[in-house]
Design brief:
five-stranded parallel sheet, 17% helix, Ubiquitin-like (UB roll), globular, binds FE2/S2 (inorganic) cluster, Rossmann fold, alpha/beta, 32% strand
């Protein structure tokens, strides 16, 4: 993966635990991007974290800056702490923009649904939809008003703000999804329960799979009670996956060549056939029917319900 150097131009707190970071070119011009794209940021410990591009001076094709939004994850792996400690003048290494969450190329209306910091890729989508003359609406859900970031500059008549503390709970996405005009494309970026709920409502409302788009903004967190389990692959080798590590991490450490991208369970690339054993699904990309079949799983996040999985790898 190629990384290049950029300079931190400015940083500011824009909402509770949410920081805006603006990056300026380092040695050469910043590569262009498309709405929904993200960059990978290299961390001092060698890890990588992905952050969606919100916008930046110069637009998408000839950007003069990249603007990112970073929520401080107190229980995370340290990537957001590093981003919250940056100061103007610091240097970062980032990848060229990638887009696993692109806008469709139709002229259909769009319903954009953001949970918290999941707003970041949707800001550029809203701008692109407006530029294309397409109809769009947005629901931005946050726990309370102090946690709302980045949607304030969008047209107020198109954005519905949902505050959990005012409403007494999470947003019910069903009415907006059922009321969407025929052919509407649904874009959801937020936590796993929001994506699961939006998909269920959209499928029940007759959205075809090609009109349901989603991206998780956080990696699957280890769950209390996770147990070690074994994974057997086609050459007979058996690996033990401890709590806190994924199948992808363990197999790659053992020299197994794997295909993956998001490492969050939303892109689908690491989909693997299950020969035996019962997966503990933690992705958002498989359909309910695929999960129930137990015959496929996303090995970047999902685990096992039993002692051993035999995978077609
Ligand atoms: S790498 Fe994207 S779903 Fe596993």
């Amino acid at each position: 993966m190629g990384f290049f150097e950029v300079n931190v131009q400015s940083c500011q707190l824009v909402a509770e635990a949410t920081r805006e970071v603006v990056l300026a070119p380092g040695a050469g011009p910043l590569p262009g991007w498309t709405p929904g794209a993200h960059v990978d940021v290299q961390l001092p410990d060698g890890g990588v974290r992905s952050y969606s591009l919100i916008d930046g001076a110069g637009g998408w094709t000839a950007p003069g800056t990249y603007r990112l939004g970073v929520r401080l994850e107190t229980g995370g792996t340290g990537g957001s702490r590093h981003m919250h400690a940056l100061q103007p003048g610091d240097r970062l290494r980032v990848s060229a923009p990638k887009n696993g969450f692109p806008l469709d190329t139709s002229s259909a209306p769009a319903l954009l649904v953001a949970g918290g910091i999941g707003i970041t890729p949707l800001v550029s989508m809203a701008a692109a939809l407006t530029a294309q003359g397409r109809d769009w609406r947005m629901i931005h859900a946050a726990r309370h008003s102090g946690a709302v970031a980045f949607s304030g500059a969008l047209p107020a008549d198109r954005v519905t703000l949902h505050l959990d503390d005012v409403a007494g709970g999470p947003a019910d996405l069903g009415p907006a999804i059922r009321a969407a005009a025929p052919g509407t494309h649904l874009y959801v970026c937020g936590p796993r329960p929001m994506i699961d709920a939006a998909r269920a409502h959209a499928e029940a409302a007759g959205f075809t799979p090609d009109r349901i788009h989603f991206e998780l903004f956080e990696a699957a967190a280890p769950q209390g009670g996770d147990q070690p389990f074994e994974v057997e692959i086609n050459d007979g080798r058996v690996f033990t996956v401890p709590p806190g590590q994924t199948i992808v991490q363990v197999l790659e450490a053992g020299g197994v060549d794997l295909m993956h991208d998001c490492l969050r369970g939303d892109c689908g690339i690491c989909r693997t056939d299950v020969r035996s054993g019962t997966p503990d699904h933690r992705d958002v990309v498989l359909s309910q029917a695929e999960r129930a079949s137990g015959k496929v799983m996303q090995i970047c996040v999902s685990r096992a319900k039993g002692a051993r999985l035999v995978l077609d790898l």
